[in-house]
Amino acid sequence: MNIFVVLGFGHECFSDVVGGNGVLKGYAESLGHTVSKVEVKGLASSEENADIIRESVMQNPKVTEDEPLVMIGYPRWFSTFSHTG
Fold it and tell me: What is the pTM for the complete model shown?
């Protein structure tokens, strides 16, 4: 499974758990999953952040169509998914 942690405005609320070398990263990797960070811009448009997220996923060599993809982030960026295509 590929897990992407989207860090942007407000990510400090959960960064101890999912950011950097947080609890999620260590646990997920111990189970054989891949954890990647995506840093979006806190004051950018949803379209611009969607482009950043899309490029991060598409350029990650570990992402395949056969593997599940999970995104974790602070609620502000959830509207971005309507723009990711």
Answer: 0.73
